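ok so for the tutorial part 2 we go from a plain amino acid sequence to predicted structure tokens. step 1 is just haveing the sequence, like this:
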Amino acid sequence: MNAMLPRRTGLALLAAVALPVWAQTDAAVGFRTLSAPASHRGGSIRVALWYPAQAGTGTGAAIGRNAVFAGTPAFEGASVAPGRLPLVLLSHGGLRAAPHTGGWIAAALARRGFVVAAPLPAGAPPETAGAALPEIWLRPADLSAALTALAGDAEWAARIDMACVSALGVLLGGTAALALAGARIDPARFARACDDGADGFDCAAFAREGVSLDRVEPARLAASHRDDRVRAVVAVAPEFAAAFDPTSLSAVAAPVRLIRLGGLEVAPLPAIAGLSHAALEGATPFASFGACTPRGAAILREAGEPPALCEVPDREALHARLIDLILPGLR
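step 2 — the prediction. this is what the tokens look like for a chain of 331 residues:
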């Protein structure tokens, strides 16, 4: 599932939507981007940085605003608030995540004193779920690349407490976050991940496209992405969790918090020793996405995408509850 730009609305349409001007008192969230070397992508990636901002600095904007999403208020280029700050590496969305899908989460955490680093998708989202399958092993590498770039940047290295680094992921991003803790995909288990009517977030797209999961490159799929710089992990409804190798889970040392979204089933991962559970009842996966524009649902419907993404009752309240569930799992 494309998470979540309308597949053929066109980037020109998205760019044409004007951004609102925000008063400085409306938010205390700063926003910048950083370039991170990423050999696994054949070059570099851009990383979105969200952080507590000094009042009176930066230029107000709605980050990630387009024809569907309302965007998240922040102050571009704002100065960082004083002090050494904990870091959260954030990945959000299904296989074809759009830029800034997790912006609302990043801003909420920045208001609570965290620096949040969210790697941005490389280029336009792939047209098909099958073409996007490499994201399963590319996204964990993106998160580690972002951490390495921050540690090597003089300004950010002086502002971030590298002893307090957490990984937070939603949907496939949750799978990536668990990979940083040492969880590895078992190719044989992954081949069965969408069997027997499984309702994984991307399984319906695989079925429509006739994608066979047993044809994914096993060596890349099973590779370890463990990053011992990450001291805690929060995974919200991670995809393909049942495909993890139990042996790798038993070796996970970082504390892990697993959060279920409503009735969406998630493998319990009992082999992880430092595991805690929580659930956001009454939520669907769409509740984990940001607010839509007034025309968002109609645009998705016209593009053949599910309008339910923009039709989430009580989204603001669900967002607040999800942040409350996430915070205890961060370092």
